[in-house]
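Fill in residues.
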């Protein structure tokens, strides 16, 4: 949906869950010298300012990056690199988390349909940025070269049909690109819309509940990974 604006949620608990997992998977995939391709279906604007009106209005970042305790996780390396460039009040979207961890030999391909988000993303990152529907774009460019790679799927889920759209996309993508590692993020909502999607997808699932939840809105954050790389058993510990 073109109405969704992630700036209200940047740096929140769901971002921390998603971005730590993304950093872990990329670290696994880049352990060997062989290059990889990283792709996103819904990339967003790439970089967010935690002092701007949207972030301050919700304050979600205070319960996310504002409370996160630093450890030796590769996510912090990515955050440091981003903040060295964009400033201490910035927070990266997943494209810049990935870019910070990718190597010179790796390829980064990003889809973003919203015109303003696309323009901001193209300015923020040195990557292959396409203004097109994310599912259509990734399928059209698959399988890419290099063939080892990861696709992150992170739609807004503002429309109920998006859950099963993800399933249809995943099946079509794996049929074209059997070796792809596919990471799907989804919100945990009171109506449990995600359950049918997860059952249809299979894969490795990790979910976290938000302690500040008070009976309304998003209760937590979920991830499912298909074709998970070796070492994934340590990812969610």
């Amino acid at each position: 949906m073109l109405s969704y604006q992630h700036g209200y949620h940047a740096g929140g608990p769901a971002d921390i869950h998603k971005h730590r997992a993304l950093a872990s998977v990329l670290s696994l995939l880049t352990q060997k010298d062989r290059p990889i391709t990283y792709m996103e279906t819904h990339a967003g604007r790439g970089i967010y300012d935690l002092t701007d009106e949207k972030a301050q209005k919700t304050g979600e970042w205070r319960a996310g990056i504002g409370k996160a305790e630093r450890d030796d996780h590769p996510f912090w390396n990515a955050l440091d690199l981003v903040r060295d460039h964009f400033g201490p009040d910035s927070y990266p979207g997943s494209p810049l988390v990935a870019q910070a961890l990718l190597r010179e030999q790796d390829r980064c391909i990003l889809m973003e349909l919203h015109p303003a988000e696309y323009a901001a993303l193209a300015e923020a990152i040195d990557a292959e940025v396409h203004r097109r529907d994310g599912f259509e774009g990734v399928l059209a460019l698959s399988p890419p070269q290099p063939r080892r790679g990861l696709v992150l799927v992170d739609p807004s889920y503002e429309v109920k049909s998006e859950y099963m759209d993800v399933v249809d996309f995943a099946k079509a993508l794996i049929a074209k690109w059997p070796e792809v590692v596919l990471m799907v993020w989804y919100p945990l909502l009171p109506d449990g819309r995600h359950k049918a999607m997860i059952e249809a997808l299979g894969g490795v699932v990790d979910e976290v509940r938000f302690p500040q939840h008070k009976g309304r809105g998003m209760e937590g954050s979920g991830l499912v990974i298909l074709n998970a790389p070796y070492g994934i058993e340590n990812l969610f510990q």
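The first strand starts at residue 37 and ends at 40.
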